[in-house]
Design a protein that fits this description.
- The structure is a single chain.
- By secondary structure, the protein is of the alpha/beta class.
- It contains twelve helices and ten strands.
- It has two domains: 25-236, 2-enoyl-CoA Hydratase, Chain A, domain 1, CATH 3.90.226.10; 240-287, Orthogonal Bundle (Lyase 2-enoyl-coa Hydratase, Chain  A, domain 2).
- The chain has helices at 3-22, 62-76, 98-105, 111-131, 147-153, 181-189, 191-200, 206-212, 224-236, 240-253, 258-272, 276-287; strands spanning 29-35, 38-43, 46-51, 82-87, 136-140, 143-145, 157-161, 165-167, 204-205, 217-219.
- The radius of gyration is 20 Å and the shape is globular.
- 39% of the residues are buried.
């Protein structure tokens, strides 16, 4: 295990131990914050982030990106067991806030400063979502373009409605890809398909997204919320340590040899064997009943 990865694992363990010591409890519905352009709610075991700027189809502004980063910092220090990312009705996220970009082009500020002030928070937001220690789920009900598409696929699962569409290209506004697209997209669809999607600005409909692996579930628009809940609820109430460790193992697996992957899996099992959820899972299996995991 690389030193930085060990530090990340140790930090997660410390947070779990702190939560056990304080006896923190998740209430059925806790509204943590309602920021401008972003709603951040706690619903039972899950943290729900709703991009909320319908006039711009939830375009990812610097302000919204900073709000997401603050929310993700809170999630990291909380006992949330999964994160759900969604958009206000009929859109997920139409990409970066072009109006802010146009205003910036006319600014007298240093170019490097402008790129960091505009692109920095957006790009770091994708990193925060991807690196989240608990499972992340994107509910895409409408367009997810540019940075919005990257934000979706940075999540562990993408649930799409029939009206969901995805576009990863930036060439129509004369920009190269950003927001982690060059890292995330080839890992999902392969290099050649990633090139096609980026160089042509092709818009991918929901069925093609499912076929390509951009989305993992596709549901009718009229029953989208109910069907998505069938996936979200078992994760939100699942064996959190095991799920989080599995997520981390899969994310890092592409960069490891089979020997390294197995070594890390064994190390994970040594941790998971000590959890209350593992004991509950074994007990439930032996008693032929459904387990009641507590996330510990």
């Amino acid at each position: 295990m690389r030193l930085e990865q060990r530090h990340e694992v140790d930090a997660v363990r410390i947070k779990r131990e702190r939560r056990r010591a304080t006896g923190s409890v998740i209430h059925p519905l806790v509204v943590v914050a309602h920021m401008d352009q972003l709603q951040y709610d706690r619903e039972g075991e899950r943290a729900v982030l709703t991009l909320d700027n319908p006039e711009s189809k939830n375009a990812l502004s610097v302000e919204m990106a900073r709000g997401i980063r603050e929310a993700m910092d809170d999630v990291a220090d909380s006992d949330a067991r999964c994160v759900v990312l969604q958009g206000a009705p009929e859109a997920f996220c139409a990409g970066g806030d072009i109006e802010s970009m146009l205003q910036a082009v006319g600014s007298d500020a240093d170019l490097g400063t402008l790129v960091e002030e505009i692109g920095g928070p957006v790009n770091r937001t994708v990193q925060d979502i991807y690196r989240c220690s608990v499972p992340t789920i994107a509910k895409v009900d409408g367009p997810a373009y540019g940075a919005g598409a990257s934000l979706a696929v940075a999540c562990d699962l993408v649930l799409a409605s029939e009206r969901a569409t995805f576009s990863f290209g930036f060439q129509k506004i004369g920009l190269s890809v950003d927001s982690g697209t060059s890292y995330l997209l080839p890992r999902l669809v392969g290099e050649n398909t990633a090139n096609r999607l980026v160089l042509t600005d092709d818009v991918v409909d929901a069925e093609e997204a499912l076929d390509l692996g951009i989305a993992q579930r596709l549901y009718p628009t009229e029953t989208f919320d109910e069907r998505a809940e069938e996936v979200i609820e078992p994760i939100a109430t699942g064996a959190t340590v095991a799920l989080s460790n599995s997520k981390s193992l899969i994310q890092n697996g592409l960069d490891r040899s089979i020997d390294e992957a197995i070594d890390h899996e064994i190390e994970s099992l040594q941790e998971v064997f000590q959890t209350q959820d593992f004991a509950e899972g074994v007990s439930a299996f032996m008693s032929d009943r459904d387990p009641e995991f507590q996330g510990e």
